[in-house]
Amino acid sequence: xxxxxxxxxxxxxxxxxxxxxxxxxxxxxxxxxxxxxxxxxxxxxxxxxxxxxxxxxxxxxxxxxxxxxxxxxxxxxxxxxxxxxxxxxxxxxxxxxxxxxxxxxxxxxxxxxxxxxxxxxxxxxxxxxxxxxxxxxxxxxxxxxxxxxxxxxxxxxxxxxxxxxxxxxxxxxxxxxxxxxxxxxxxxxxxxxxxxxxxxxxxxxxxxxxxxxxxxxxxxxxxxxxxxxxxxxxxxxxxxxxxxxxxxxxxxxxxxxxxxxxxxxxxxxxxxxxxxxxxxxxxxxxxxxxxxxxxxxxxxxxxxxxxxxxxxxxxxxxxxxxxxxxxxxxxxxxxxxxxxxxxxxxxxxxxxxxxxxxxxxxxxxxxxxxxxxxxxxxxxxxxxxxxxxxxxxxxxxxxxxxxxxxxxxxxxxxxxxxxxxxxxxxxxxxxxxxxxxxxxxxxxxxxxxxxxxxxxxxxxxxxxxxxxxxxxxxxxxxxx
Length: 480
Known about the structure:
Number of strands: 30
Number of domains: 2
CATH class of the largest domain: Alpha Beta
Radius of gyration: 45 Å
Structural class: alpha+beta
Number of helices: 10
Largest sheet: 12 strands, mixed
Helix content: 25-40%
CATH topology of the largest domain: Bactericidal permeability-increasing protein, domain 1
CATH architecture of the largest domain: Super Roll
Strand content: 35-45%
Distance between the termini: 126 Å
Low-confidence stretches: 18-31
Mean pLDDT: 82
């Protein structure tokens, strides 16, 4: 029979054994409990300023106009009839009175030169100096029953466009010859066999030479600036490419490349220097810019632009998680697996990678690095991704084997994502925007020859993939 003392001792032994067993269970469970890893995330910093300088592009603009307006002005200001008194014809000392009646002007263009043709009917009264005799009266074209003799006059003028958008001509008279071989188009006094047709032609040529300045003044009144201003204002307006996506050409200057005419029309090839860009968000505000002075010939640089394609960090995170989920890393008899990867902008052109892990360690690893485009593989990577100090401190304290496992370098190699989709999207939108009707009479036509990744810029809110675009672009202006 146990005494009370014996029963007390037995209770203490049972209690000790139970405590020891509980400690063993606790210790065993403790060894099986994964290490919790919750480092502090890195502090965000300010974004670096974006490069503001955009590449210079040159856009060809053929400006077409016909000569009708010019002819209308010349017709309106040059009299159809004119009486000139006391003219001196040729090398003669005799003064002559002459009446002109001109027909309509016709014009043609060849290269950069315009030619004006006009037929002039004339009548004159003069005298002929006979040796040792009184001067003989001489008339031609005064008989109302006979057609007046005619002269075919040709004028020529190279055409330029001034910096102030006016036509500049330097008209000269090329020739004044009988309109036909017929005798009716010659000034001849048959009684004495006196033919002064050549002297008349010389007189008409001299007379018109005195009036070429007024013709050039009329040409200078042709208002090219108003015509150009119409499409200049149009190309300054943003072109919608998609919802919240705009092509902004940003024209800066206009230069003349060439002027070529054929027949009754002329084409001026102007080159607009612009700095195109793709703008996201609301329709950009445009400050009207007056038409600049016409510059000298610009080099043909073609179309060049920088396109910034936005990549959402959430989309990148989903891609990386899908590609790397359950990837495992081992070291010192332990193992961890990737549960998820989340990317966010840190500022300073860096991203922070939050890598969720499970296994012998449960929690988060934070890595920071700068994204770059790998031209060889065609992926964006973070080759300098490094574990943050706060993460490293916790690993050293409780799970240094993770550092020794090489997880940092492995993540550097495996964290990458493609940009082909963004490039294809940008090409499609650009091709639409570069081949669009700006108005009923102004159309853009362009072609993209290359679209290459220039660099990658990490912003706090998004990742920007900057593309360099090259190609050609022209602006066609139709008639009203």
